Amino acid sequence: MPTHRPAAFFPCALFALSITLLAAGSAAQTTHVVDAKGGPGSNYLDIQAAVDAASPGDRIVVRAGAYLVFQVTKPLSISAEAGVQVGSGIDPNRAEVIVRGIGAGQTFSMHGVDLVVSWKTFPVVVDQCLGTVILEGANVLFPGGTAGVLATDCRDLRVVRLRIDQVRLERSNAVLEACTIGNTLTGVSGLQAIDAYAHVVGSRVTGTRQYFNQADSAAVLLRSDLISTRSEFLAGPGGLTPLSAVRGTGRLRTDTGSVFAPANGGVAIDPQIDARFFPHARLTATGAPQGSTVTVRLDGVAGERYALFVGYPAPPQAIPGLGGKLGIQPVGLWMAGALDSTGSASTSVPVPPASQLDITGLAIAWQAATAPSTNPNAVALSNPSCYVHGLR
């Protein structure tokens, strides 16, 4: 597959400039190092202590070790080395990672932190956030049942490359990208979207079943709007009751690359749901440690015209005349052209080493607009793709 070059007026050599623009608001940030063993150069033994001491916009680097859960009420970035696990310990009153009250125009991110908890159904709670919250590159494990993320009254949640048992959205907007969601222990749907907007991208969502009576559940319980981009939705296995992959009410928009698999002779999508085909491209942007390379790939229909933009995450908004929703605040046009004969375009983006510009914890977002060559006015937005420059 050929690699396309960026547009002439936004060349690859200027990627550092775009990073500088994105990082300008946090130029004065302080880095706080957490190390459970108190190693050289560390400032704190506990994540909560670092959170309490940090100022808005600061970043927290967590070294390998076991830590207690924490609560955050300010925009920060938390980046973990390999081997970081956060748990509840023996205190049932400290059983959740809670992110609350991130303001409009602000971002909180957590990258590479695995959670192992035993007390709460939702060990990760994101609540009343007008800004962006990013949870990336981790596992949420609950050996005794089902562990999930609960988002209530949030304008922009990004769940990226997570393995988790369930996600529940209430009055919230979320993009779930490259996730594995669902387990086989309890009778709840992997994704529950209530008065919410969810865009599921390149993910696998499965229904669950109760441990004792093998009762099935749909992959998705929908009471809102859902867009699917090349994702799989599988009803829970076992049992005898016909079950849909997506049940409930609301609106579903899907591309041709998504799969909806019912169980036991059920229909793929409940007839009460307004389900329609929405042609749009899939965008995949994979972050990388500093000094490495980011890969960005767009997959659509051969010959389609496209324009690819880079910026930072922003709450989804509808743009008149465009299909889909804009989920980034663009900094600039990265490249434009036509998708090749395989329906793809890609680019490799060098990330400056930390010695030039330390951007650990910085969130980057990409999104593309595409249009058929035969109908250039039929413009559709791809999914937004987001990542945080982590430590690994």
Under the CATH scheme, the architecture of the largest domain is 3 Solenoid
What overall form do the CA principal axes indicate?
globular
Largest beta-sheet details: 21 strands, parallel
Note the quaternary state here: single chain
Outline the secondary-structure elements.
Blueprint: H1 15-23, E1 31-34, H2 47-53, E2 59-62, E3 65-68, E4 71-72, E5 77-80, E6 84-87, E7 97-100, E8 107-111, E9 114-116, E10 124-141, E11 148-164, E12 166-170, E13 173-177, E14 180-181, E15 191-201, E16 204-206, E17 220-229, E18 232-234, E19 246-254, E20 259-261, E21 273-277, E22 282-286, E23 293-299, E24 305-318, E25 325-338, E26 344-350, E27 363-371, E28 380-381, E29 385-388
Parallel strand pairs: 1-2, 2-5, 3-6, 4-7, 5-8, 6-9, 7-10, 8-10, 9-10, 10-11, 11-12, 11-13, 11-14, 12-15, 13-15, 14-16, 15-17, 16-18, 17-19, 18-20, 19-21
Antiparallel strand pairs: 22-23, 23-26, 24-25, 24-27, 27-28, 27-29
